[in-house]
Design brief:
This protein is mainly α. It contains six helices and no strands. Helix 1 crosses helix 3, helix 1 packs parallel to helix 4 and helix 4 packs antiparallel against helix 6.
Length: about 130
């Protein structure tokens, strides 16, 4: 009777940990600014970018939970999803040759923040679908 509640609690804790680790890693990928400092200072563009990363990681975790039979599979797929999201972020920054994504986010360019959020969420859906 309690098993579904315990499983939900375990998946919840695992998801929080994976999201926090993912955000920590993303924070260290950003060299020109610190995400939380920028958000504290009211930088909407950085906030949108971080929101996209959080939603993206959670989408991947949701697909992993749906398609995994055991908790360790969810952890593996969640970690792999975070790695793929990081690769996507680096590629997004590389393929925008006309400007630096990090620089534009640090300047509070909301359009770039929205685009970054869209890239994170869109690719998370593709990554998540590939898990199933």
């Amino acid at each position: 009777m309690l098993e579904p509640f315990i499983s939900t609690l375990i998946y919840f804790v695992i998801s929080i940990v994976i999201v926090l680790i993912g955000l920590f890693i993303f924070e260290n990928l950003t060299r020109s600014y610190k995400d939380l400092e920028e958000i504290k200072n009211g930088n909407v563009a950085v906030s949108l970018s971080v929101i996209g990363k959080v939603i993206g990681i959670c989408i991947i975790l949701a697909f992993a939970i749906y398609s995994s039979n055991v908790i360790w599979e969810t952890i593996i797929w969640g970690a792999f999803g975070v790695i793929l999201q990081m690769i996507a972020y680096v590629l997004y920054d590389l393929f925008t040759r006309n400007f630096s994504v990090q620089e534009q986010l640090s300047k509070n360019n909301i359009a770039v923040g929205l685009m970054s959020m869209g890239v994170s969420i869109g690719l998370a859906l593709v990554i998540g679908a590939s898990i199933t």
